UniProtKB/TrEMBL annotation:
Protein name: Lysophospholipid acyltransferase family protein
Record has DNA damage as a keyword: no
Record field: compositional bias (Basic residues): 224-234
Pfam families attached to this UniProt entry: Acyltransferase (PF01553)
Start and end residues of each Phospholipid/glycerol acyltransferase domain: 29-150
SUPFAM superfamilies linked to this entry: Glycerol-3-phosphate (1)-acyltransferase
Region (Disordered): 211-234
Sorted UniProt keywords: Acyltransferase, Transferase
InterPro entries for this protein: Plipid/glycerol_acylTrfase
GO terms for MF: acyltransferase activity
Source organism of the structure: Actinophytocola glycyrrhizae
């Protein structure tokens, strides 16, 4: 069912791929990506599937309460993320097990579509670092990828949907990330933030290459932007 729905959606974009050969055909992989549109999951799913793998997404638990969509993403092996609840850690446990069992996990560390007005990655959650450290300890490759073009089709904040003419959607996939500098360090908040920013800086650099423009310094923070706006209004 997921393939029947997602492949026609993916047709909305004229896809080009750089570095797709870095997605090996077997074994666990953690694929770290940016998030710019509601079209990203179906586009990314088809992109991964075309390269010989079945993607398992870490997805917001609320999506699993939508009747038809629940059956689709559950059947595809997606993992619900319960934020700020007693079950919050369950998703990471399930993701670690999937990685150890040779599955490919797709994660959007930002946790939602970026709120950066220009579409650059914003400050991300550190769950990706916990999974990356697990990968480091168990010789599971971590790969970063950027994707650009889906927002030109569906801008999820302005609600503009422009399917025609078909837009170019480009993917850039890295070689496995060298995380050896973090090996053996204590798993504390400083390490989690450092690993998270390290991975998302790579994603941001890849995105800058796709956009052919320089990336901004640092990551957009909705909380800081809100505070700054409130100070200006005052």
């Amino acid at each position: 069912m997921t393939a029947v729905v997602f492949y026609p959606i993916a047709w909305l974009g004229k896809t080009t791929m750089n570095g797709a050969e870095n997605i090996r055909r077997s074994g666990g992989i953690l694929l770290v990506m940016n998030h710019i549109s509601h079209l990203d999951p179906p586009m990314d799913a088809v992109f991964v599937h075309r390269n010989g793998r079945v993607p398992r997404f870490l997805a917001k638990a609320s999506l699993f309460r939508v009747p038809v969509f629940k059956r689709m993403i559950s059947g595809a092996g997606s993992i619900p993320v319960y934020r700020e609840s007693a079950s919050a850690g369950d998703s990471l446990v399930a993701a670690r097990e999937a990685l150890d069992n040779g599955k490919l996990i797709v994660i959007y560390p930002e946790g939602t579509i970026t709120k950066d007005p220009d579409g650059w990655p914003m400050r991300s959650r550190t769950g990706v670092a916990r999974l990356a450290v697990h990968c480091l300890e168990n010789d599971v490759p971590v790969i970063t990828a950027a994707r650009w073009g889906t927002r030109d089709i569906l801008h999820s904040y302005t609600k503009k949907f422009r399917p025609f003419p078909r837009k170019k959607v480009t993917f850039d996939v890295s070689e496995p990330v060298d995380l050896s500098r973090f090996k053996g360090r204590e798993l504390d908040n400083d390490l989690l933030r450092e690993v998270t920013d390290f991975l998302m800086t790579r994603v941001r650099e890849q995105l800058a290459g796709l956009r052919d423009e320089p990336a901004p310094d640092g990551f957009y923070s909705p909380a800081r932007a809100k505070k700054k706006s409130a100070g200006t209004d005052g």
